[in-house]
Amino acid sequence: MAIVAGVCSAIATASAHAESLAVRNCTWCHGAAAQGYTPAPSLAGQRYQYLKNQLANFHARTRDNPFSKQYMWGAAENLSAQTARDLASYFSTLPRRAANDGDRELTGIGKTIYQEGKPEANIVACVVCHGPNAEGVGQIPRLGGLAYTYLKRRLEQWAEGYHAAAGPPMPDISGKLSPDQIEALASYLSFIP
Amino acid sequence: MGLRFRRAWRMARPPLDRTARIVSVQLALATAILTGIFAGAPRAQHMDMGSAGGLPAKIGYCKDCHGPAAQGYGGFFPIPRLAGQQTEYLENQLRAFIEHRRTNNVMFNVAHTLSPATIAALAAHFRSLNPSPIGGAPKQLVSLGRKIFEDGVPDANVAACAACHGPDASGSGQIPRLAGQLYPYVIKELVNWGKERGQNPAKPDTSAIMSPVAHSLSKTQIDAVAAFVSYLK
């Protein structure tokens, strides 16, 4: 009974969050279950610290790629630090469903780059920081299950000069990836649950 | 090569106990094997020096993971500090990855494309850096860690770390600098010593010196030593 009560209260808390205006403001674009809706990425199951940092970056206008500028600068403009923490905490606990929208034929190539890098091209292995299941940790984002287009654009944009919110090493690493390698990585990651 | 290897060993501050003598016999064997291999191997011009960007690009590649000043980085796996590290230790570890003496898939992939000349140049570069430690270890563990580092653990027959790694943990030759090394990295290495180091029975190496120490320390003692050295400059 106590367990049931506990579960009920957890659900009640979650729905209370979901009903809150701040959450509704996110899910208009990111989807009612926060699974992402092109071009807005999935927030569900993303790392708490990463989400919190990104909201801070939007608020400070340092994450400067076009969609961030167009949508997220305004969305985060009046966000208090406490609300940012609450939102990060709420979305980080939602279950993620993988986007599964990459090119299946490229996943083998993508997996090899992810696990081993390309030493002869000075491309490091993603697994070292993002984890064996692309789950991320702390401020390092979970990549598994994000949408193909989102992953591809992020990797491309660093090389195009939209750097500000990402410290080293991502702008440097993505600049070394060829278009084919970016497509393969984005495909592989989109299928990871 | 063999000469260099022996010099590295002589340069180490020796705790001349039974372990050291046993290891030195193993090292003599290792030296003989290494001498044979390196004398026989032509200095192949590997592709790495010809790859895009040459040495500066390769240094940038290392720093993508090990940090812009090679101060180390807390990724999903802890990535060690290379800055200020002993050149002979760095060179030996890169060869250890290639020779499967030290098991690490990621670092095998990195190291096996490097020529001996590149390995030497990378080691010299990282030796020359000296950023501040990144810190972050629990401060309450530091005093116990200092005691173990300076005095050892007599009950467990563990020698003082300072005996080999030096009073300032700067290392010597093939014995690594520990000063400023990442707290979670030192823990991971000591906990997994027997599974990651000295893994090629045909090529015994200096990692054997640490095996009894890593085995004898409790997890609490490992955490304490790791915390202490992580703050040293």
Distance between the termini of chain B: 31 Å
Largest sheet of chain B: 2 strands, antiparallel
Our measurement of the CA-to-CA distance between the termini of chain A, rounded to an integer number of angstroms, reads 33 Å
Class computed from helices, strands and strand pairing of chain A: mainly alpha
- What is the average of the pLDDT values of chain B? 85
CATH topology of the largest domain in chain A, what is it called? Cytochrome Bc1 Complex, Chain D, domain 2
| Largest sheet strand order of chain B | 1-2
Shape of chain B: globular
Beta strand % of chain B? under 5%
* Assigned CATH architecture of the domain at 139-230 in chain B: Orthogonal Bundle
Overall description:
The complex is a heterodimer of chains A (193) and B (233). By secondary structure, chain A is mainly alpha-helical. Helices cover 57% and strands 0% of the residues of chain A. Chain A folds into 2 domains: 91 residues, Cytochrome c-like domain (Cytochrome Bc1 Complex, Chain D, domain 2), CATH 1.10.760; 87 residues, Cytochrome Bc1 Complex, Chain D, domain 2. Chain A is built from 10 helices and no strands. In chain A, helix 3 crosses helix 4, helix 8 crosses helix 9 and helix 8 packs antiparallel against helix 10. In chain B, 53% of the residues lie in helices and 2% in strands. Chain B has 233 residues and is mainly α. The N terminus of chain B is likely disordered. Chain B has a domain of 92 residues: Cytochrome c-like domain (Cytochrome Bc1 Complex, Chain D, domain 2). Chain B has 12 helices and 2 strands, in the order H-H-H-E-E-H-H-H-H-H-H-H-H-H. At the A-B interface, helix 7 of A face helix 3, strand 1 and helix 5 of B.
